[in-house]
Amino acid sequence: MGITATGLIRPFAILHWAGKDVTAELSRFVKSMTYTDVMESKQTGTDTVSLTLFNQDRRFFDAWYPNQGDTLKPGIGWLDEQGQRHEWLWGEFSIDDVSFKLGPDDVIVGANAKPPAPERGVIDNPQCIARENVTFEHVAESWAKESGLSFIKAPNTPDFRFARIEQRDESTPAFLTRLSEQTSVPMAIKGKNLVMGSFESDVIQIDTVNRSMLTSLTLPDSARSKYVAVEVEGYDQQSNTLFSYRAGDATATGDRVKVLRNIDNVTSMADARAYAESYLQNGAEGKQGEKGRLSVVNTMLTTAHLIEFLHLGNVPNRWKPTTVTTSISGRSWTASAQLSRAR
Known about the structure:
The protein is mostly beta strands and 343 residues long.
C-alpha cells in the first residue's frame, strides 16, 4: 500500500456484489466510483463508497436492480505495461441508499462499512447505560461484538479507565465519539471492523518538484499550530497532592505548551501520561491548527500512512492523512486527502 501504480495502462473498477464477482459484467457501466477512508480523533467515523452507474438501457430498473442490504466488495484494478493485472480492494460495504436519475440516466448507489440496515439496531439506536470501573477499550470491544463487528486496536494505543461513564440517550457511535474527543483516540468502522487508534503501515515520500504524482498541495503553518508539548494536571485525593505529566518538549514555555486540567478520570500519574501522549499525538486533528490538503494520481493512499514531502525547505514536511477520498473515472484515479501535522 501507499505506492504509485507505475506503468499503468488502464484502471478499472473491481466489484464483488452480493458474493459474486461481477467485474466483467459491470465494469463498463461504472461512470465513477468513490471511496472515502476516515480516521480522525473526535469522531467514530465510517468508511463509505459511492457508485454511479450508466443506465441508458434501463437494466438497473429491473434485471440488475440494486437492493438495499446487498454487500459490495469494491476496489481498483489496473494492467501494467507487461499486461500484468494488479488489484487494490477496499473492504466490505453494505448498500443503504439507491437513487435513480433521468437526464443523465444514472443510478447512484451508496454503501458504508456498517452491517446491513436490518442488523443496525445495536449501532444506531439511542440507549441510556451507565458503566463503572471500565476501560475505553472494553467498551469499544464489547460494542463491536454486539454489533457484528470485529475489533482491531492499533499498537501503542493508550487505554483509559473510567470510574463511571454514562451513555445518555445517544447511539453508541455518538457515545464513542464523545469518548474519542475526550481521549483523542481516533476510531472508525472499516470493512465490518471497529478500528481503534492510528495505524502507520508505510511512510510515503512525495517529491514536490516532480509533479507526475502530486497535482496539488496546501500545507498551513499558522501560529495556531505551534504547541510542542502537552501537560496534564491532576489531583491525588489519597495523598492530597497535585501532580502533572508533560509529553513533548520539556523545555517549552508559554503558549508552546498546551495545559489540560480538570479531567475527571485523571487520578494518577499513569492517567496523566496517557492523556498527554494521546493528545500530543492525535489532538492536533482539529484542536489546533488547520488542515492541509493534498491531491495525487494513481496512488494507493490510506489513513494508515504517514506522508513525508521532499524538497520543502523549512516547511513542516511530515503529515498524516485523516480523510482520504479516492475516485476512479476514465483513464486514472485520484486521491484527495485532508492532512494533520504529524510529530
